[in-house]
Amino acid sequence: MLEKKPKNIFVDGPISPVKIGEDIAHHQKKTNIGAHSIFMGQVRADAVEEATVMAIEYTAHQEMALAAMHEIREAIFVKYPLTCLHITHSLGVVKAGEICLFVFASAVHRKEAIDACEEVVERIKKELPIWGKEIFADDEYQWKGNRG
């Protein structure tokens, strides 16, 4: 049996609304799908002490991240009866207000799509070697901790 090659989830910079719209539109012809669950992570202009986050610069150990994402994706397909699962994560600089993570799960029924989407997002945050450097207006920065 041929082993599946890990899919590249990474894009340079923010995830464009056009790409998100195209991903959604491609599923209109799949009439066996009854539900989609979508998560879009957006960079927040958090106030950190006296400064405001202007952007986040994402970096990753790409080979490790893609291997881990492949394992997560395969486990999700075993656990949930999904029709499709798409994951896109930004690398590089993403400004406040722009999309940095897009997870799109499709299934026959909504519960499976919603549960799978939520689990994928949680596992990405916990298991993938992806880091964010918060950039402030004065060119200062700090490595991002998960604040939710």
Task: Describe the protein.
It is a single chain. The chain is an alpha+beta fold and 148 residues long. It has a single domain, classed as Aldehyde Oxidoreductase, domain 3. Helices cover 30% and strands 38% of the residues. It contains 3 helices and 8 strands, in the order βαβββαββαββ. Strands 1, 2, 3, 4, 5, 6, 7 and 8 form an 8-stranded mixed β-sheet that branches. Helix 2 runs antiparallel to helix 3. It is globular, with a radius of gyration of 16 Å.
The H/E string reads EHEEEHEEHEE
Oligomer: single chain
Count of structural domains: 1
Averaged pLDDT: 92
Give the class-level CATH name.
Alpha Beta
Indicate the low-confidence ranges by residue numbers.
none
> Approximately what portion of the residues adopt beta-strand conformation?
35-45%
Largest sheet: 8 strands, mixed
Shape by Cα distribution: globular
Supply the number of helical segments: 3
Please name the fourth-level CATH homologous superfamily.
Molybdopterin biosynthesis MoaE subunit
Q: Helix fraction?
A: 25-40%
Report the radius of gyration as a whole number of Å: 16 Å
Which architecture per CATH?
Alpha-Beta Complex
- Strand tally: 8
Based on secondary structure, the structural category is alpha+beta
CATH topology: Aldehyde Oxidoreductase, domain 3
Termini gap:
40 Å
